[in-house]
């Protein structure tokens, strides 16, 4: 990413204040979670989808930062919000249909939910 991670400002939960940084770390944690799962063929599309939607959140925020207009910015942030909500859906399905760590999936669901609330708040405040 174009911004350095050396001097991250963290909130009281130890998470970055900057939403783009927070989404980056969420994407990283999601990828590492999937990497550690034993995936039967029937579940492979769930994991493909959760990786796509989960990593799309931060990618759209970064792209939105480079938007040429306020409308362009809003569009990318809206897509990021939709991706965060979609990610929660896939994580719920993974948690409820597979024998994977409910603790880890619940942590990821909670983080995706917090990210979606932050993005929604940013969108509302921008309007």
Largest sheet, in brief, is: none
CATH superfamily: 23S rRNA-intervening sequence
State the shape. globular
CATH architecture grouping: Up-down Bundle
Structural class: mainly alpha
Q: Mean of the pLDDT scores?
A: 88
> How many separate helices?
4
- How many strands in all? 0
Share of helix, binned: over 70%
How large a portion of the residues is in β-strands, by DSSP E? under 5%
- What does the radius of gyration come to? 15 Å
Contiguous low-pLDDT stretches (5 residues minimum) are none
SSE layout and pairing:
Layout: H1 19-36, H2 44-65, H3 70-97, H4 102-126
Helix pairs in contact: 1-2, 1-4, 2-3, 3-4
Structure description:
Helix 1 packs antiparallel against helix 2 and helix 3 packs antiparallel against helix 4. This protein is globular. With 127 residues, the protein is mostly helical. The protein has one domain: Up-down Bundle (de novo design (two linked rop proteins)), CATH 1.20.1440. 73% of the residues lie in helices and 0% in strands. The protein starts with 18 loop residues before the first helix and ends with a helix.
Brief sketch in words of this structure:
73% of the residues lie in helices and 0% in strands. The chain contains 4 helices and no strands.
Features:
mainly alpha; 0% strand
């Amino acid at each position: 990413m174009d911004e350095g991670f050396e001097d991250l400002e963290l909130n009281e939960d130890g998470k970055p204040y900057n939403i783009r940084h927070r989404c980056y770390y969420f994407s990283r944690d999601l990828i590492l979670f999937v990497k550690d799962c034993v995936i039967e063929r029937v579940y492979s599309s769930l994991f493909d989808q959760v990786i796509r939607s989960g990593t799309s959140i931060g990618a759209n925020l970064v792209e939105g930062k480079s938007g040429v207009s306020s409308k362009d910015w809003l569009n990318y942030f809206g897509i990021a919000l939709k991706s965060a909500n979609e990610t929660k859906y896939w994580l719920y399905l993974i948690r409820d249909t597979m024998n994977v760590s409910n603790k880890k999936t619940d942590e990821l669901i909670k983080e995706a939910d917090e990210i979606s609330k932050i993005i929604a708040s940013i969108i509302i405040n921008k309007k």
